């Protein structure tokens, strides 16, 4: 068994709640022979251990080295079976699968009528909950059984099942095409971020149009509409069309509120839809609507009927904290937002094994941006260094690039110019390597490089010149992406007017909304 698998077993044991551990011991203890079994003894050792230590396990004498791999595999399987039997994990999909398994057993025993009765109820449950793949599988088994269980209604029954199978198959094909399209676009977002030029925009548009199946929206169910809105949302995000991002994210979220039973069946999709809705509102700078939807989101997820498993809890933690920070970026209330950082850092500890490195780095970038906006440049550099120094990090290329650009600006602001030239060279090389050296970055690097030749009394004029140059890119369809990560324009205005950048952003926000 590989090291990853060993770590996986240890992580699984450590993820169990007290009630889940108690149920596991009751489950394996139902047979007296298990009371002193090797896998149960191994479970007790792992449960008490703070870290995985194979040498300590072997030294305890509960299992021999040549037996360890098999005992670990058996323990892993028994824990999963125990969790499956736990009522808290009994979701609709498991219920449908269980009924399908029961029907299959009855069929193989020749109890066709009983099998068909269970299948009919399972199919109804699957269709109500938009589990159309399972419904199709049930219909196919019904067809097999009906071909052996002869009744007077066989002719009409055959037609009924054939039509149902055809309709489910067609919808499953549409859902599959839409989910494939959605997944490919989402993968592009994670890898490269927004499109950088006309060529990439055209490529994304063509890719979307060529793979979008012909649809009649009136005939689509919840699941097909969900995948459609997701695909449209990812395309809009890639193209930086944030008004359409808002439009499709709102359709996504409203789809759940129009079908409230789907929230508990698909809580992850509900959470993600809200996350992108809030992100779109953040990008279009609509704080009143942002706060309205954020409150609606928090009210729903804190409700007693909202699912509470570990995966859902992790996503709720991520999205609530991401957008608690974003709220302060909209109106420039950076200093007010600083109090969130120690709270989130502390709360991150219990989630450290559940949150991937990509999302941890997003937190660090947001922390860095808050500190920069509040004028705490050394603290900003500290968080950026966590991103830049992580050589094995796999995250969005645009975030990696702008972490380095913000790092340059923060070093200048902090007066740490003794190795600024080295930073400039490394940033320039990195941007070229990532194919992300565009006009805004070029102008920023050229400006910072030239600062050492500017006399102090000419500095404000230099800021004004850079401001005029960059202002022309603010509405550019591809260059403006730089301002989504770092509000360089407001920073320059703060230098020209000798005001904190937070005050500049706050004044702009108030002016726009009065």
If you had to describe this structure to a student in words, what would you say it looks like?
With 514 residues, the chain is mainly α. The chain is built from 27 helices and no strands. It has helices at residues 3-15, 18-28, 38-48, 54-60, 65-85, 92-108, 112-128, 132-146, 154-192, 198-211, 222-238, 242-258, 261-265, 267-283, 287-301, 310-331, 334-337, 340-348, 357-373, 377-388, 397-413, 420-433, 439-450, 459-471, 481-485, 488-497, 501-512. Helix 6 packs antiparallel against helix 7 and helix 11 runs antiparallel to helix 12 (242-258). The longest helix has 39 residues, at 154-192.
Question: Summed up, what is this model?
Answer:
The protein has helices spanning 3-15, 18-28, 38-48, 54-60, 65-85, 92-108, 112-128, 132-146, 154-192, 198-211, 222-238, 242-258, 261-265, 267-283, 287-301, 310-331, 334-337, 340-348, 357-373, 377-388, 397-413, 420-433, 439-450, 459-471, 481-485, 488-497, 501-512.
């Amino acid at each position: 068994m590989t090291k990853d698998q060993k770590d996986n077993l240890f992580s699984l044991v450590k993820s169990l709640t007290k009630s889940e551990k108690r149920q596991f011991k009751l489950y394996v203890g139902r047979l007296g022979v298990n009371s002193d079994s090797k896998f149960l003894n191994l479970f007790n050792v792992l449960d008490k251990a703070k870290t995985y230590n194979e040498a300590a396990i072997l030294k305890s004498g509960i299992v021999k080295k040549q037996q360890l791999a098999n005992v670990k595999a058996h323990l892993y399987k028994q824990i999963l079976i125990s969790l499956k039997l736990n009522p808290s994990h009994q979701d609709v999909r498991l219920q449908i699968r269980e009924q399908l398994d029961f029907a299959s057993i009855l069929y193989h025993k020749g109890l066709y009528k009983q099998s068909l009765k269970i299948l009919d109820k399972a199919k109804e449950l699957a269709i109500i909950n938009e589990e159309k793949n399972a419904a199709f599988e049930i219909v196919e088994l019904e067809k097999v059984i009906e071909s052996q269980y002869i009744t007077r209604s066989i002719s009409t029954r055959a037609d009924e099942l054939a039509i149902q199978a055809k309709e489910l198959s067609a919808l499953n094909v549409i859902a599959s095409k839409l989910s494939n399209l959605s997944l490919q676009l989402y993968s592009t977002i994670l890898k490269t971020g927004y499109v950088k030029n006309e060529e990439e925009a055209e490529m994304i548009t063509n890719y979307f149009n060529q793979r979008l199946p012909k649809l009649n929206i009136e005939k689509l169910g919840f699941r097909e509409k969900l995948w459609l809105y997701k695909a449209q949302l990812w395309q809009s995000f890639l193209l930086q069309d944030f008004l359409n991002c808002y439009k499709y994210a709102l359709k996504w979220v409203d789809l759940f509120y129009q079908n409230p039973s789907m929230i508990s069946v698909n809580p992850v999709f509900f959470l993600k839809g809200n996350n992108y809705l809030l992100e779109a509102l953040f990008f279009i700078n609509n704080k009143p609507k942002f706060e309205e939807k954020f409150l609606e989101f928090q009210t729903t997820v804190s409700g007693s009927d909202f699912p509470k498993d570990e995966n859902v809890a992790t996503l709720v933690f991520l999205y609530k904290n991401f957008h608690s920070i974003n709220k302060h970026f909209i109106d420039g209330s950076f200093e007010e937002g600083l109090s969130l950082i120690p709270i989130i850092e502390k709360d991150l500890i219990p989630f450290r094994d559940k949150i991937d490195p990509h999302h941890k780095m997003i937190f660090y970038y947001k922390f860095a941006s808050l500190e920069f906006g509040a004028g705490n440049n050394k603290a900003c550099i500290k968080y950026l260094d966590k991103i830049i120094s992580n050589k094995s990090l796999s995250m969005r290329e645009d975030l990696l690039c702008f972490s380095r650009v913000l790092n340059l600006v923060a070093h200048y602001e902090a007066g740490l110019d003794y190795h600024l030239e080295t930073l400039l060279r490394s940033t320039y090389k990195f941007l070229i390597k990532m194919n992300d050296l565009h006009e805004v970055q070029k102008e920023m690097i050229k400006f910072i490089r030239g600062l050492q030749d500017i006399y102090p009394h000419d500095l404000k004029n230099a800021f004004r010149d850079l401001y005029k140059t960059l202002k022309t890119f603010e509405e550019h369809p591809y260059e403006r992406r730089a301002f989504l990560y770092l509000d360089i324009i407001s920073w320059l205005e703060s230098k020209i007017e000798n005001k904190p950048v937070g005050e500049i952003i706050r004044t702009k926000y108030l002016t726009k909304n009065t």
